[in-house]
Amino acid sequence: MNLAIQSDQYLKNGIEGGLERIGGIGYKYATYTVKGRYDEPFVDFSDDELKKEYGPIGKAFEEKGIKIVYNELSTEMYVNYLTNTNAAREKMVIQTIKASSFMGVSHLLLKPFFIIPAGDDPVSVTREKLYELLELFMPVAKEYGVKLLITNNTFHNTKLFFGSEPEDLLELYERYGVMTVIDPVNAYKAKWKLSKAMMMIKDVIYAYQITDVEPSVRNPFMPMMGSIDYPQVIRTLAAISEERPDFVAVMNANIVFKRFSEFDSDGLDSALDNLLYKMGRIIVGDR
Questions:
Q1: Quick one: which of 10, 176, 231, 254 has the fewest CB in 10 Å?
Q2: Gap between the Cα atoms of 78 and 87, Å rounded
Q3: Angle between helices 86-103 and 122-144 (to 10 degrees)
Q4: Short-list 229, 243, 224, 233, CA closest to 284
């Protein structure tokens, strides 16, 4: 099993120095967030402009020997309370697919969505809308050689949405070939029996995000310090990786660094770098 790191925190002060830091810690795999948003000129960039902007980023990762296992969107692909922005959000996703291709990145992770207010049948409504969006995005993804992924959905204001149940993720894969990146915090909030659910859908899981959730206020937090049963997760990941040696676990560093941002210092950053890396190695079974 491979260990990857979210690169956002490390690249905030520049690609070159950030990649030196990532490689120096020991990571050979990473994820990357394409920063272009729906409300920025990014949505109207030509293919040539996207190549010029994002091609060098992919090349920089490659030259440092760090493989990007997937890209992420900078923000939501759909919100029902800002419907005037959704046409631009659709363009944002299409542009991010293209940017990923020009970076040499084979997968793009989409964010699931919920609706506010949820209404009487939020599962059907969010299923229908997601299918509508995938019908729009899949031909572009195929043309540019990028595969789409999605995170399991969460529980919000007493409501479940499409993608909140393991069966939904199997349905997505069977219909569109879209694999899943497991967010255990979303799974916890949706009341999954995490290890059982992961084994149920193991063939459609592309990656696992290493993160945790506080038991009291339910905010995401440091791995192995919250409500997720990591001893059981470690056993489950090991069982999956026996069949899938290319399986990836992604250390969700953004949440951790954000939590400690008010204490920002080189010493703390270095300590967190080492702690997260050592935790990650334990979780992926690299001892």
A1: 231
A2: 9
A3: 40
A4: 233
| Structure tokens that stand for 78 in this block | 């759909």
CB atoms < 10 A from the CB of 272, how many?
Answer: 17
Helix 166-176 vs helix 122-144: angle between axes, to the nearest 10 degrees? 40
The pLDDT tens digits of the residues spanning 215-260 come to: 876 777 888 888 999 999 999 999 999 998 889 999 999 888 887 7
Give dist(CA 208, CA 185) in Å, integer: 11
pLDDT tens per residue, range 91-122 = 999 999 999 999 999 999 999 998 988 888 99
Residue 84 and residue 128 in contact, taking contact as beta carbons nearer than 8 Å: no
Rg (CA), the chain: 18
Q: Which amino acid is residue 277, in one-letter code?
A: Y
- CA–chain centroid gap for 197, Å, is 19
Q: Which of 269, 287, 223 is nearest to 22 (CA)?
A: 269
Tokens of 198: 């992961």
What's 163's DSSP letter? T
Dist. CA 201–CA 188, nearest whole Å: 16
Token couple for 163: 């993608």
With a CB cutoff of 8 Å and minimum separation 6, the contacts of 80 are 113, 115, 116
- The CA-based diameter of the chain, rounded to the nearest angstrom, is 52
Using DSSP's 3-state secondary structure scheme, residue 25 falls into helix
